[in-house]
């Protein structure tokens, strides 16, 4: 444990949409020039099939420039990443809603075939040189939210109904009962207990980011249960303020970061907090600075942005990607300078020199 009071500031950005190595080279330099020291690379099913060796080189290029690399399980189980290609091979592994409809793109986390597939994905990540896995926004789907609870929800497939009967001694109801909520929490936690144990045995660091809300089957109870896993090293969230009505970016991000850090401190986990750098409306780019300040002020020291250059390669890009990226770099420089000054004061205090801010 670090008893000096000094801490490392990690500043990361999500990077995807490009697999051309000469562009990767210049983009990694651009990321460093915008004051980042960490990059999150997607590794989708399509990357596995078509870019496996290219991804190995992308990791090598990134690390060669001094960037820490996290590998994102982007879309292997469906949104928020790509639609799951896995379901083309295992059509009996779809999530099923409580009204009997099938989700066309999301995978049931209780599918043994999907868990096997996840282990195989971990093996490939190991082969291409990954060291840290970023488990991106795991969730079960819900619709028609009333008082924070979904009235239509997953997963109610035959497999999950059988597991529910075994655990609760009765048939799974169509209503969203406390037992159903408990089962959904158990499903998410059990999946991650299995796959993070496998990845930990492969010497990976396990990092997770969760979206809070009944819509996603994630609440504080779920996070607490996930946090108990000794195979999970780092727990984060993404308090994206855009899309919420009448919220103050600073206050919204500050409060969410405090809640995240409280759970991490309770269970002795590291943390990651994400700042919204996509979908930013014109004229509101400065809110990125407020949000980064809020995360830092609340105590976060691993702060990341989704995504590179305002996510300009996606339809959900910022309205003004160049302006968004410029201000994102300014936000990272701002917290970098703050952190350097704080570390300097800590170092001087350790020498008994006090605060000589005029020097």
Automatic annotation (TrEMBL):
Organism of origin: Paenibacillus mendelii
Name assigned to this protein: Uncharacterized protein
Record-linked Gene3D superfamilies: Glycosidases (3.20.20.80)
């Amino acid at each position: 444990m670090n008893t000096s009071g000094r801490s490392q500031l990690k500043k990361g950005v999500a990077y995807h949409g490009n697999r051309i190595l000469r562009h990767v080279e210049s983009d990694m330099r651009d990321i460093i020039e915008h004051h980042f020291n960490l990059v999150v690379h997607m590794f989708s099913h399509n990357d596995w099939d078509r870019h496996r060796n290219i991804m190995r080189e992308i990791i090598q290029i990134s690390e060669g420039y001094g960037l820490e690399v996290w590998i994102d399980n982007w879309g292997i189980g469906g949104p928020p990443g790509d639609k799951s290609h896995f379901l083309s091979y295992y059509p009996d592994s779809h999530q099923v809603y409580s009204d009997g409809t099938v989700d066309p793109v999301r995978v049931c986390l209780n599918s043994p075939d999907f868990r096997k597939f996840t282990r195989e994905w971990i093996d490939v990540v190991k082969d291409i040189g990954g060291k840290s896995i970023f488990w991106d926004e795991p969730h079960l789907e819900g619709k028609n939210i009333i008082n924070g609870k979904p009235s239509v929800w997953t997963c109610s497939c035959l497999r999950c109904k059988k597991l529910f009967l075994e655990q609760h001694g009765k048939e799974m109801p169509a209503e969203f009962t406390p037992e159903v909520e408990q089962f959904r929490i158990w499903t998410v936690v059990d999946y991650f207990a299995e796959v993070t144990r496998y990845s930990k045995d492969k010497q990976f660091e396990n990092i997770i980011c969760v979206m809070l809300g009944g819509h996603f089957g994630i609440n504080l109870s779920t996070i607490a249960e996930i946090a108990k896993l000794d195979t999970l090293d780092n727990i984060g969230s993404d308090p994206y303020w855009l899309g919420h009505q009448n919220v103050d970016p600073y206050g919204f991000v500050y409060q969410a970061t405090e809640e995240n850090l409280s759970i991490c401190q309770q269970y002795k986990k590291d943390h990651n907090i994400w700042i919204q750098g996509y979908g930013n409306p014109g004229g509101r780019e400065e809110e990125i600075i407020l949000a980064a300040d809020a995360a830092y002020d609340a105590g976060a020291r691993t702060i990341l942005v989704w995504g590179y250059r305002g996510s300009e390669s996606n339809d959900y890009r910022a309205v003004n990607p160049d302006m968004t990226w410029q201000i994102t770099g300014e936000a990272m420089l701002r917290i970098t300078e703050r952190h350097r000054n704080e570390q300097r004061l800590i170092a001087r205090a350790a020498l008994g020199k006090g605060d000589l801010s005029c020097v």
